[in-house]
Amino acid sequence: MALSQEEIQNLNRQFKGIPPEEIISWAIGHGKNPVVTTNFRPYEVAILHAVTEVDKNLPVIWCDTGYNTPQTYKHAEELISKLGLNIKLYVPLQTSAHRDAVMGIPQIDDPRHKEFTEQVKLEPFKRAMDEHKPDVWFTNLRKGQTALRDSLDVLSLSKDGVLKVSPFYHWSDTQLDAYLTEHGLPNEHKYFDPTKVLENRECGLHT
What we know:
Layout: H1 5-15, H2 20-30, E1 34-38, H3 44-54, E2 59-63, H4 70-83, E3 86-90, H5 96-102, H6 113-132, E4 136-138, H7 147-150, E5 155-157, E6 163-165, H8 173-183
Parallel strand pairs: 1-2, 1-4, 2-3, 4-6
Antiparallel strand pairs: 5-6
Helix pairs in contact: 2-3
Domain Phosphoadenosine phosphosulphate reductase: 34-187
Pathway: Sulfur metabolism; hydrogen sulfide biosynthesis; sulfite from sulfate
Protein name: Phosphoadenosine phosphosulfate reductase family protein
């Protein structure tokens, strides 16, 4: 689904205030090979529920770093069962136990942090995208999360030209809490991303 930047800007103006399910239906209807990615962080359940309401069989790519909290793993299993998610699991090529023995989790100023991020997040993600070759990529990016994400919108293009669709981009936590309550969906806040260190730092997937 090749769109020009001008077309994307026009659509973003149209999509502001439009219900997420309508945006998702539009994107699925215009794309050929859509996927949604998740790490089961807080509020991810909203995008997972919204896309599966439109297409139950949509591939759900989960790149598991191997460092999630027990709460996140239990939350993931609950959502996979509750929503009937078509999970496509991708994990690092090296186990976390092996990496812990030889590297650990490097701090952000450690030269090994870049290699660590490549191993646990970027390589599995690239492998997933290479195998699925999506033209539409649903995410739960939202305005206010990071400086980079503030420069995006409901629709944006990835560095590889994939159309990223973030139906909840303009939503606040309060609005998402109401959405979760309305649909009887659980949330989980005990989440850990070993590659970000700082909450407002990008991990590399969206840069």
